[in-house]
């Protein structure tokens, strides 16, 4: 096995394994590092080989480790881990061209597994580069024995991939798409998607906001809502068991689309592109009344898709900033006043004291907010851990918490005071991208707030977090900065040039990513039908597509073939170029040079066949041979030009019959 | 090269066996070059199917895109594989004769008239190890093909398979080239045995003993065909025996290697023995002649003479 091929293999393997590394358990990372290091050492000392026993041991250890760690070999994560182990071990015992091909094919396969975890534009670009290297590896392995400069293989791979791109586009657009899954997927197929949970316990949201991943993008038809109205509604939580909030079943009843249900404020029309999160809810601006895709609109203004959102979903929706939801029926009132048995006396007493000092429910709410605002409550991303009764402990002991603590404590207090209340989770805020004209809402914008039912106006949104940290509502949270336990920081608009250009760069990248999603990643069976309809093929069957596919692929291949075969590069040596011109001229005289015929032999044959031309042919051939095969020192500066002139003066065509006779 | 009729072009025989011996130059073009996937290519196709299936199952757009990219690349590589053979011209070169049991060499001259490099061209005779060569742009290169031999005779090169797996090894393009190139296979040399001296001539221990005209060397009994001018008439008159005066001086020992000197043996054994003598005589710088039924090569020496004699042995019917 030539050393260059080994080098290529190592590079290809490292490139495809690298993006998987952060997802692997630590011992597998160490395994990868050790294997890569061994690969480097084998490259340095090509005569050495790893003992078979060691490789066997490593195979057993790696496979066993994966089985122990994931409890299976079949899932998405376990499968990738196993592939990585196998690939690295095969890399270390590559002995013949067959092994090279096996490693290369495994590399191609590992590329595609990366797309199960990320399909971003950056990942696509990275993987294209990796494919270039893998293909160069295959070319180098195929040409084994003949050593060429590494750049040559890379260039060959670039040519092949470059010519493949038009074909790829045709296949991508016209290959009949099938809606998956057609086969059972492993349990962890959809694992690793971030998003709001269907329950909320202390720490749930503060964990989610660590993620910078986009949750959705929203584009408003007209003006966007003001900052204090940008609440994006997610799961509504009614039931509290003393530690965890969950949906309960009261609010999940479908709501009839009531024409009377009109907001008393302005309507907002917008479209949302929701990232997959493997749960049912479709996020929308508070309070949504209409949706463009089939979904259940529940009594508590949630919008639930019929199936978990497992791919990017686009929909338009209409929302009102405020809707009078009217009276509350008994079932809902009971659910909205539910409290677990263990609510402490201190909490009940606090609520009762507010109730006694107030004339109506609204006054109780105001007092509660004032309490959060005036007492020394701190809004922090890393609150202290809470014990058995988190609400009590938070309200009277630690007083440091994140939005979920405030929302939960506020709702418990309201219910204790006899006011129907519920927790709403979702997102708040978002960042406007002027390049793409959309609002990007990230997981770090996750938020929890409360709703209370008041006789006047029905359900009202109350955000206790705003009472503690009003800037939370104005700006996005800065999850990057801030030491442990410190008060949460907020993104301050950068004023300096560097900050501004960095931000513009970020906008550009996100806008590109959005377009990428729009045009590439969301292309499925539905979009394919739309695309074909736009070409005038209505209700296209797979037969239409197969026909279009065959025709286009064939045409393209033919085009590439013609381009490749007709475009023969001219020789670099000018002397030889002139000689070939000369041969072409002679060919027109009916005297084509035979393959493999040397110039002298050719000249002799021409002279014999056409004695009239002998003199000139011999002169040209003599000069050519002297220039091409003679010592470089004997070449005079003007010789090439002289040869050129001689060839140009050589009669291009045989004289016509009458001219020769005449 | 004459063009083929449709029936010839698509006959399965041509696909399996090639189109027979043709005078050179043979230029590879569409009608000669076949392409099929290699076993590795089939494995690759299986992997692509798996990748496509996975992409469908996971509704993964990038998976589709990547699968199509790699599949397209494989399709495009067919064209590169074909182009790597297309345009190459083959002419017959020299041969390297061998003794039966040794390997005979045949030279093929491959001409690459184009401006592209053609790497990884493989030439293969059935049953022999393949030879791989690279052709630079505008290069003509001679490639020696070796073929094992078993029997004496004239061995044609036979069908040579020219193939390539460039660039990715997923497809193999091949063409059959059968050039009128034949090599002499000399008889397998027999055991070392002293050649019988031609009848009536015994070399002397001393002095120059070659056949010549300069010096008088001695007498030998007359045999038919001797010039009467050399007959030692005095002795003939005295002893009633005809002696011939022998002259020498400008040559060393010279011998006739004669088919007739090996009576009672099988034809091949006789030829083997003659072959051995030819080799030995040449090695000892001894001029020799060869007499076979219907063929006589006069006494001479040197490599071309040896080759001529061995060739006569190879061709002997």
Folded structure, characterized:
The complex is a heterodimer of chains A (about 650) and B (about 325). By secondary structure, chain A is of the alpha+beta class. Chain A has three domains: about 5-140, no CATH class; about 200-490, no CATH class; about 575-660, no CATH class. Chain A is about 50% helix and about 15% strand. Chain A has 23 helices and 20 strands. In chain A, strand 15 (about 430-435) and strand 16 form a beta hairpin. The longest helix of chain A has 25 residues, at about 150-175. Chain A is elongated. The two termini of chain A are about 70 Å apart. Mean pLDDT of chain A is about 85; it is low at about 480-485 and about 655-660. By secondary structure, chain B is of the alpha+beta class. Chain B has two domains: about 15-180, no CATH class; about 215-315, no CATH class. Chain B is built from seven helices and 17 strands. In chain B, the strands form five sheets. In chain B, strands 2-11-10-6-7 form a five-stranded antiparallel β-sheet. In chain B, strands 1-3-5-8 form a four-stranded antiparallel β-sheet, with no helix packed on it. In chain B, strand 6 (about 120-125) and strand 7 form a beta hairpin. In chain B, helix 3 (about 40-55) packs antiparallel against helix 4 (about 60-85). The two termini of chain B are about 35 Å apart. Residues about 200-210 of chain B have low confidence and may be disordered.
């Amino acid at each position: 096995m030539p050393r260059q091929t080994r080098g290529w293999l190592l590079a290809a393997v490292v490139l495809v394994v690298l993006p998987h590394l952060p997802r692997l358990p630590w011992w597998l990372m160490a395994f990868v590092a050790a294997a890569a290091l061994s690969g480097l050492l084998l490259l340095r000392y090509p005569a050495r080989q790893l003992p078979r026993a060691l490789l066997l041991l490593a195979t057993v250890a790696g496979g066993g480790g994966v089985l122990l760690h994931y409890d299976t070999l079949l899932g998405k994560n376990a499968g990738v881990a196993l592939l990585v182990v196998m690939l690295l071990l095969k890399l270390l015992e590559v002995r013949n061209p067959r092994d090279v091909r096996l490693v290369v094919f495994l590399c191609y396969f590992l590329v595609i597994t990366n797309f199960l975890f990320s399909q971003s534009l950056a990942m696509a670009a990275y993987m294209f580069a990796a494919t270039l290297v893998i293909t160069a590896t295959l070319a180098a392995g195929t040409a084994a024995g003949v050593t060429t400069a590494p750049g040559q293989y890379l260039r060959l791979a670039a040519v092949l991939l470059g010519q493949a791109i038009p074909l790829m586009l045709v296949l991508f657009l016209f290959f009949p798409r099938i809606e998956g899954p057609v086969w059972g997927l492993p349990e962890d197929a959809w694992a690793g998607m971030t998003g709001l949970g269907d329950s909320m316990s202390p720490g749930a949201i503060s964990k989610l906001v660590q993620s910078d991943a986009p949750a959705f993008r929203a584009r408003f038809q007209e003006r966007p809502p003001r900052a204090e109205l940008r609440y994006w509604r997610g799961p509504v939580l009614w039931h509290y068991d003393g530690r965890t909030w969950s949906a309960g079943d009261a609010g999940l009843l479908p709501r009839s689309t009531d024409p009377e249900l009109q907001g008393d404020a302005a309507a907002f029309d917008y479209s949302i592109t929701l990232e997959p999160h493997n749960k049912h809810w479709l996020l929308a601006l508070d309070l949504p009344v209409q949706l463009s895709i089939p979904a259940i609109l529940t009594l508590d203004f949630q919008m639930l898709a019929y199936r978990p959102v497992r791919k990017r979903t686009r929909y338009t929706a209409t929302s009102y900033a405020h809707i009078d939801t009217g009276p509350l029926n008994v079932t809902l009132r009971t659910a909205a006043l539910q409290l677990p048995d263990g609510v402490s006396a201190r909490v009940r007493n606090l609520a009762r004291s507010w109730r006694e000092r107030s004339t109506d429910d609204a006054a109780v709410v105001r007092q509660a907010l004032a309490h959060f605002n005036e007492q020394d409550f701190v809004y922090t991303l890393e609150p202290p851990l809470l014990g058995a009764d988190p609400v009590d402990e938070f309200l009277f002991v630690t007083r440091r918490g994140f939005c979920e603590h405030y929302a939960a404590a506020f709702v418990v207090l309201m219910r204790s005071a006899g006011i129907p209340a519920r927790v709403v989770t979702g997102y708040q805020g978002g960042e406007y991208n002027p390049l793409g004209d959309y609002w990007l809402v990230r997981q770090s914008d996750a938020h929890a707030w409360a709703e209370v039912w008041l006789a006047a106006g029905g359900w009202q949104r109350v955000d206790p977090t705003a009472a503690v940290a009003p800037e939370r509502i104005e700006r996005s949270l800065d999850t990057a900065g801030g030491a442990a336990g410190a008060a949460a920081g907020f993104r301050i608009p950068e004023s300096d040039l560097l900050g501004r250009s960095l931000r513009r760069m970020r906008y550009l990248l996100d806008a590109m990513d959005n377009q990428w999603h729009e045009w590439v990643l969301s292309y499925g069976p539905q979009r394919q039908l739309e695309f074909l309809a736009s070409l005038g093929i209505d209700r296209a069957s797979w037969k239409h597509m197969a026909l279009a596919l065959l025709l286009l692929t064939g045409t393209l291949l033919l085009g590439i073939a013609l381009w490749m075969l007709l475009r023969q590069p001219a020789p670099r040596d000018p002397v030889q170029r002139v000689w070939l011109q000369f041969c072409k001229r002679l060919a027109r005289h009916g005297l084509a040079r035979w393959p493999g015929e040397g110039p002298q032999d050719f000249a002799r044959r021409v002279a014999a066949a056409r004695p009239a031309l002998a003199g000139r042919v011999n002169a040209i051939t003599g000069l050519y041979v002297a220039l091409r095969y003679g010592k470089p020192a004997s070449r005079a500066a003007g010789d090439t030009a002289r040869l050129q002139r001689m060839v140009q003066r050589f009669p291009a065509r045989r004289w016509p019959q009458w001219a020769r006779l005449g | 090269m004459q063009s083929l009729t449709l029936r010839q072009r698509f006959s399965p025989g041509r696909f399996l066996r090639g189109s027979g011996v043709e005078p050179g130059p043979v230029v590879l073009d569409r009608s000669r070059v076949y392409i099929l996937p290699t076993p590795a290519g089939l494995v690759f196709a299986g992997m692509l199917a798996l990748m496509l299936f996975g992409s469908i199952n996971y509704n993964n757009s990038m998976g589709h895109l990547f699968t199509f990219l790699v599949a397209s690349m494989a399709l495009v590589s067919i064209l590169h594989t074909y182009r790597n053979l297309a345009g190459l011209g083959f002419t017959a070169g020299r041969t390297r004769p061998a003794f039966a049991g040794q390997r005979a060499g045949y030279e093929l001259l491959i001409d690459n008239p184009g401006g592209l490099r053609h790497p990884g061209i493989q030439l293969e005779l059935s049953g022999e190890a393949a030879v791989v060569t690279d052709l630079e742009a505008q290069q003509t290169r001679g490639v020696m093909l070796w073929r094992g031999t078993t029997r004496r005779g004239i061995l044609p090169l036979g069908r040579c398979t020219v193939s390539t797996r460039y660039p990715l090894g997923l497809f193999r393009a091949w063409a059959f080239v059968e050039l009128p190139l034949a090599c002499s296979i000399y008889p397998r040399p027999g055991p070392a045995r002293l050649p019988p001296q031609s009848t009536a001539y015994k070399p002397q221990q001393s002095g120059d003993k070659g056949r010549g005209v300069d010096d008088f060397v001695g007498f030998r009994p007359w045999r038919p065909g001797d010039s009467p001018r050399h007959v030692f008439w005095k002795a003939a008159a005295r002893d009633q025996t005809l002696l011939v005066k022998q002259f020498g001086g400008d040559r060393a020992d010279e011998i006739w290697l004669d088919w007739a000197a090996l009576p009672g043996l099988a034809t091949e054994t006789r030829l083997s023995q003659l072959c051995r003598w030819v080799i030995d005589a040449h090695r000892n710088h001894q001029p020799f002649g060869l007499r076979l039924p219907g063929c006589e090569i006069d006494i001479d020496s040197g490599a071309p003479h040896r080759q001529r004699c061995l060739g006569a042995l190879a061709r002997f019917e």
